[in-house]
Amino acid sequence: MRGWLVCFRAILLREALRFLHQRTRFLAALIRPLLWLVVFAAGFRTALGLSITPPYTTYITYEVYIVPGLCGMIQLFNGMQSSLSLVYDREMGSMRILLTSPMPRAWLLFCKVAAGAAISLLQVYAFLAVAAAAGIAMPPAGYLAALPALAVTGLMLGTIGLALSSIIRQLENFAGVMNFVIFPMFFLSSALYPLWKLAETSDLLADICAINPFTHAVELIRFALHGELNPGALGWVVAALAVFGLLAAWGYDPARGLINRRG
Amino acid sequence: MTNRLSISDLGYRYGDRVALDGVSFSVAEGRFCALLGPNGAGKSTLFALLTRLFVPHSGRIEIAGIDLARAPRAALARLGVVFQQPTLDLDLTVRRNLLYFAALHGLSGRASALRVDAALDLLGVRDRAGDRARDLSGGQRRRVEIARALVHEPRLLLLDEPTVGLDAASRRSITDHVHDLAAGGLTVLWATHLVDEIRPGDDVVILHRGRVLAAAQAAAIAGAGTLLARFLELTGEGTA
């Protein structure tokens, strides 16, 4: 068991070092949600009226509303970035070193996802700190309560990235992931607007949003940031984690011969 | 002498295309065995099966007496691998690359550091331990990769065309180094398409279109002629 933990620590350290080496990635991860917070929220504040819905007990500004969604966006992009680096690793060969380790493959993949989730936590808290400095603060206890929620959502979104990386054969196909995974997941969720608001326009879109795992990730974060647990959202997120985890395990099964098909 | 690698009746196909067909051979302890074959012979597929990146459709692989299908973790723990593609993390130092690999095998702390230093010493690259892998030459990177493959003290070392892309001096140096490792008791399977990397006393398995055409000592396969001539004759390239 000690060997497993040694392996986990090494993968975590490697991902952290890789992240530190890519300063632009950190800046992009921080600036992207801040731009949304400053620019997008400024424009939409007047267009969207928000009613008092749980977990909120009073009227809130639009900036406060979208903070959990932007936390989720950071984790969504981070999960896809990890997926991209897995495809890159596979093309470059370093994935072979990982997969020929005598540790169980499922454990190795979990370590990769958990390391990515840990990186996303750093990014999210950096964003929350900047948002708080700009006057968009959450209840103090919420920052602590959000930690386990963010850990679970980070794992879930990382697992989606892992499952995708087993399907994507080449790095060039990654643009498709942006168009067909990240953007629909983000926009068809409660990140930017409440579902009841969307239902006023289209019941179908609201229904799609309601089954989008990202919606539940955002709601789990939203409630946690206000010190509350949303059991329904947690159930959805854990279920999505299990489904995509199984899909990733199947995708990386050696019987499928994933790595580089050559004679 | 016990076999460190035993392969029997191994088969693998990509869809309808047969990549390996009834491949059987073994490598005895402390031997340098060259897996010789032209491009597309099935060498890389065989290596992918030996490292369990793929699972064979038929046949059996034993590494140091352990069935790879039944006990993959125990078998992989006894295997050192140098892949054809470079697999170092270029932004990490040489030492950190090796420590990372050691940790993937569950090794840490002082024991791991000592093994890393010993492996770097063995390949003559300890003086570059603090340098980033990116700053090394191609030949040095290969040495580091070989050192890395030895950190967990494997029983069997696999190298898939490890001299590809290197200059003549680096090729010679690495070939000599690995022969020395075999002389020291390590079992080596060295995939190549270059006959000049093989010594007369080495074992040779000639693989062509997924089948074993010959398996014996290099001198015995060469007979009265040269290994190159015999290789070309067997693979049909000599008559082209």
Question: Outline of this structure?
Answer:
The complex is a heterodimer of chains A (263) and B (240). Chain A is 76% helix and 0% strand. Chain A is mainly alpha-helical.
Secondary-structure map:
The complex is a heterodimer of chains A (263) and B (240).
Chain A: H1 2-21, H2 23-44, H3 62-92, H4 94-99, H5 105-133, H6 140-167, H7 174-187, H8 195-201, H9 203-211, H10 213-225, H11 231-251
Helix pairs in contact in A: 1-5, 2-3, 2-5, 3-5, 3-6, 3-7, 3-10, 5-6, 6-10, 6-11, 8-9, 10-11
Chain B: E1 3-14, E2 17-28, E3 32-36, H1 43-50, E4 58-63, E5 66-67, H2 72-77, E6 79-82, H3 94-104, H4 109-122, H5 138-150, E7 156-160, H6 168-183, E8 187-192, E9 203-208, E10 211-217, H7 218-222, H8 227-235
Parallel strand pairs in B: 3-8, 3-9, 6-7, 7-8
Antiparallel strand pairs in B: 1-2, 1-4, 4-5, 9-10
Polypeptide structure, described:
The complex is a heterodimer of chains A (263) and B (240). With 263 residues, chain A is an all-alpha fold. Chain A has one domain (2-254). Chain A contains eleven helices and no strands. In chain A, helix 6 packs parallel to helix 11 (231-251). The longest helix of chain A is centred in the N-terminal third of the chain and has 31 residues, at 62-92. Chain A is globular. The two termini of chain A are 37 Å apart. The mean pLDDT of chain A is 84. The mean pLDDT of chain B is 91. Chain B is built from eight helices and ten strands. Chain B is globular. In chain B, helix 3 crosses helix 4 (109-122), helix 3 (94-104) packs parallel to helix 5 (138-150) and helix 4 crosses helix 5. Chain B has a domain at 84-153. With 240 residues, chain B is an alpha/beta fold. Chain B has helices at residues 43-50, 72-77, 94-104, 109-122, 138-150, 168-183, 218-222, 227-235, and strands at residues 3-14, 17-28, 32-36, 58-63, 66-67, 79-82, 156-160, 187-192, 203-208, 211-217. The A-B interface holds A 2-4, 6-7, 9-11, 13-14, 17-18, 21, 92-94, 96-104, 108, 254-255, 257-263 and B 14, 19, 40-42, 44-45, 48, 51-55, 72-74, 76-77, 79, 81, 83, 85-89, 91-92, 96, 99-101, 103-108, 210.
